[in-house]
Write a structure and sequence with these properties.
About 50% of the residues lie in helices and about 5% in strands. The protein is mainly α. About 40% of the residues are buried. The protein binds s-citryldethia Coenzyme A.
């Protein structure tokens, strides 16, 4: 806390508000008393200048391209650690010791199976249902099965619900995929690591053994780490707002999945690959660049731009390297889609429209190419994002619940509608 203050002048009267300083990043002006003392609201559509909470979990410097989970930079975590270690870090605030990690990994493994009755939920969907629709439904339904971990006031139940969410999301995602292609679900295998287990549940069939390619499981694990958390993005803010009413964690995560689905957010990886496929050949790139710049055309370059990053998304750089590793392991020398992506990136990074607006590739630009190379269909891309982001949503939800100053989120508005008027009977209108 500093004694720095911001002074607001309204109708010649000065009002002082404290300026708070965090451990990193911009200072904030605490306006929590503004309405009470000035009878004014602030207006900030899209929350471009608004901090919704204090948090110790993830730090982003959009100008320097820095992303850190609990102070550890994403490059080190993605290249030297593994996803479950990152989950422990996000949940508990410190990297685990060898014994803590072994215990945590084992706890997660023990929760990977779904209640057998939940399998029946999938058959209620059409086979061609978008897997994100299935994820929203099935994750929301978890609260109907796990009553012993929905009392959010009980720390032990909060932790069990956290473990269950992290452990069961890959199983639910794999079951949604298997259901969509008419294959039987594959049960989790307790002798496999998190990413290998997920790949096996997606791509194994009961008729033969399935061996996970270590390059693929390493790439999958790294993709999970890169997507694990990202400060107060739209879906995380949705989870926090849902949780602020006291809703159970499964319902809150289902709300986060629904928000992530949008093409402006987590749905951008699916949209980016569809866009690259639509471009089809490098000579059509200028046509799409022109469309992205045309104010009368709603088309945007999917996988480009970011509310916070005004430089290269550090996750995109790591993903670009991972894409090359996976394609090399597959013996794919010149993937036409990757070729288009790299040419599109090169052109966009020199075009003044994009340079002026600080529009760089974000995590979704390369993730689709990697996931396609790993064998996933496009409509599964956002599902994988949701699997990875579940730990971030849960960590942020726990932090919100455990904040002694926590209260229900309830924004106000600038009303522009009709003034008060009297009802007119229908025969007099
Ligand atoms: C994710 O918030 C997070 O952290 C999200 C995420 C996470 O990990 O949780 O990082 C994951 O969602 C990444 C973003 C994925 N979305 C996309 O790739 C979709 C395409 N990108 C855009 O829709 C857009 O860039 C946003 C939504 C990501 C950010 O939008 P903003 O911050 O609201 O910026 P804006 O819409 O005000 O754009 C500023 C200018 C505008 O032009 P002008 O009005 O100034 O002339 O840039 C233009 C926009 O038209 N612009 C684009 C563009 N993105 C912004 N023009 C063309 N193509 C684009 N992609």
């Amino acid at each position: 806390m500093t004694d720095k203050k911001a002074t607001l002048t309204i109708d010649g009267k000065n009002w002082d508000f404290p300026i708070l300083t965090g451990s990193m990043g911009p200072d904030v002006i605490d306006i929590s008393t503004l309405y009470k003392i000035t009878n004014h609201f602030t207006l900030d559509p899209g929350f471009t200048s608004t901090a919704s909470c204090e948090s110790e979990i993830t730090f982003i410097d959009g100008y320097e391209g820095v992303l850190a989970y609990r102070g550890y930079q994403i490059e080190q975590l993605a290249n030297e650690g593994d996803f479950l270690e990152t989950c422990y870090l996000l949940l508990y605030g410190e990297l685990p010791t060898l014994s803590q990690k072994a215990k945590f990994d084992s706890q997660i493994t023990q929760h990977t199976m779904l209640h057998e009755q939940m399998g029946k939920l999938f058959s209620g969907f059409r086979r061609d249902a978008h897997p994100m629709a299935i994820m929203v439904g099935v994750v929301g339904a978890l609260s109907a099965f796990y009553h012993d971990s929905t009392d959010i006031s009980d720390e032990r139940q909060r932790m069990i619900a956290s473990m269950r969410m992290i452990a069961k999301m890959p199983t639910i995602a794999a079951m949604a995929y298997k259901y969509s292609i008419g294959q039987p679900p594959i049960y989790p295998a307790n002798d496999l690591d998190y990413a290998s287990n997920f790949l096996r549940m997606c791509f194994a069939v009961p008729c033969e053994d399935y061996r996970v390619n270590p390059v693929f499981s390493r790439a999958m694990d790294r993709i999970f780490t890169l997507h694990a958390d990202h400060e107060q993005n739209a879906s995380t803010s949705t989870v926090r707002l849902a949780g602020s009413s006291g809703a159970n964690p499964f319902a809150c995560i289902a709300a986060g999945i629904a928000c992530l689905w949008g093409p402006a957010h987590g749905g951008a990886n699916e949209a980016a690959l569809n866009m690259l496929n639509e471009i089809g050949t490098p000579d059509r790139i200028p046509e799409f660049i022109a469309r992205a710049k045309d104010k009368d055309d709603p088309f945007r370059l999917m996988g480009f731009g970011h509310r916070v990053y005004k430089s290269y998304d550090p996750r995109a750089k790591i993903l670009q390297k991972t894409t090359h590793e996976v394609l090399e392991a597959l013996g794919i020398k010149d993937d036409p889609i990757l070729e288009i992506a790299m040419q599109l990136e090169k052109i966009a990074l020199t075009d003044k429209y994009f340079v002026k607006r600080n529009l760089y590739p974000n995590i979704d630009f390369y993730s689709g190419i990697t996931l396609k190379a790993l064998g996933f269909p496009t409509d599964m891309f956002t599902v994988l994002f949701a699997v990875a982001r579940t730990v971030g949503w849960i960590a942020q939800w726990k932090e919100m619940i455990e904040d002694p100053n926590q209260k229900i989120g309830r924004p106000r508005q600038l009303f522009q509608g009709s003034n008060i008027r009297n009802y007119v009977p229908v025969d007099k209108r």
